[in-house]
Amino acid sequence: MSQENLKSIxxxxxxxxxxxxxxxxxxxxxxxxxxxxxxxxxxxxxxxxVTLYRTLNSFLxxxxxxxxxxxxxxxxxxxxxxxxxxxxHEHNHIHFKCNSCGQIECLDExxxxxxxxxxxxxxxxxxxxxxxxxxxxx
Amino acid sequence: MSQENLKSIxxxxxxxxxxxxxxxxxxxxxxxxxxxxxxxxxxxxxxxxVTLYRTLNSFLxxxxxxxxxxxxxxxxxxxxxxxxxxxxHEHNHIHFKCNSCGQIECLDExxxxxxxxxxxxxxxxxxxxxxxxxxxxx
DNA sequence: TTATAAATGCAAGTGAGTTGCATAAACTAT
DNA sequence: ATAGTTTATGCAACTCACTTGCATTTATAA
Lengths: 138, 138
Ligand SMILES: [Mn+2]
Ligand SMILES: [Mn+2]
Ligand SMILES: [Zn+2]
Ligand SMILES: [Zn+2]
Description:
Two copies of one chain form a homodimer. Chain A is α+β, with helices and mostly antiparallel strands. Chain A has a single domain (3-132), classed as Winged helix-like DNA-binding domain superfamily/Winged helix DNA-binding domain (Arc Repressor Mutant, subunit A). Chain A is built from four helices and six strands, in the order ααβααβββββ. The first copy, chain A, has helices spanning 3-12, 19-30, 37-43, 49-61, and strands spanning 35-36, 65-68, 76-79, 93-98, 104-111, 122-133. The first copy, chain A, has a three-stranded antiparallel beta sheet with strand order 1-3-2. A three-stranded mixed beta sheet of chain A has the order 5-4-6, with no helix packed on it. In chain A, strand 2 and strand 3 (76-79) form a beta hairpin. The longest helix of chain A is centred in the middle third of the chain and has 13 residues, at 49-61. Chain A is globular. Chains A and B meet through strand 5 and strand 6 of A and strand 5 and strand 6 of B. The site of one manganese (II) ion has 7 residues of chain A, from strand 2 and strand 4. The structure holds a DNA duplex (30 and 30 nucleotides).
């Protein structure tokens, strides 16, 4: 994606344009899988780990990224759809974690099925993590 | 549950009977929600945190507990069904996380719906976490 | 260009999770 | 019941991701 496109994405989310943010966003757009803080630290040694941490947080808050829960404890992040905003996140797709290569990816085209909860409960969101073997590792 | 019942559960999983394991198992049986290592540390100050940590792990390995992933990073654990064994875990129920009180619970009667993944992918397991407001907090 | 607000880097702290090892306790076999 | 064997426990110490404070630098607006 062009540098100008990247800048307009940041602007539309009311974020200042900085080298770190441009690089991190480009990285997310290039990678098909979800990324962790550690992935960013390995990729961008020129930036302080705290800066990368805060970059992830600002992207989370502004609706550019969403956090993907998993059992290992280290958070991973994936790009949000255009429909996401700081106020309203729409993440109704399935996440897949490969037990061989460890990669987590957003299956954007796979919609999370509707579910019901017991009487008196109210649903805000649903997160579905499927684990198994990805096509590359099969 | 009686002390004898608790002991037989441990024995059937080939675990030695210790005070810590009996207490922790009783705690899980009493609590309706899932518990974290921190919850155990608060409840049982007489046991070292490492002992509680290893108690959770031995219960995990032997199929007494299952780990419930969530976005906060701190792992929580819930009781397995009778059908679970060290070799084969069967956790096809939905987990609910209340955004008000923070409690995570197993909705044992709510079965995770079947899903499909792209061609070439293989499914090992599915984890579904619904978040919202529980009946108590509503 | 200057003023203001925000982002960055560095240092330092938190808290869960983990391991090694000596001691204590649970089980097994006399 | 006792002695021998195996396992669990407590303590110290470590890793690692995550988080905060503060001084400095940079981006943006006036
Ligand atoms: Mn996703
Ligand atoms: Mn459960
Ligand atoms: Zn893979
Ligand atoms: Zn609640």
